[in-house]
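Quick one: structure for this chain?
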Amino acid sequence: RNNSHTAIPQIKITLYFFCHLSICLHYFPLLSVLNVDWLN
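Got it. Here's what it folds into:
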């Protein structure tokens, strides 16, 4: 009946997805560098 009720959770999901993706992209290289340092 009202699209605004279903549009708000969709926006939250997309915002959460982009935040999670940016965090993964920032921390995954850092973690891989730390793992290489520990292996050496």
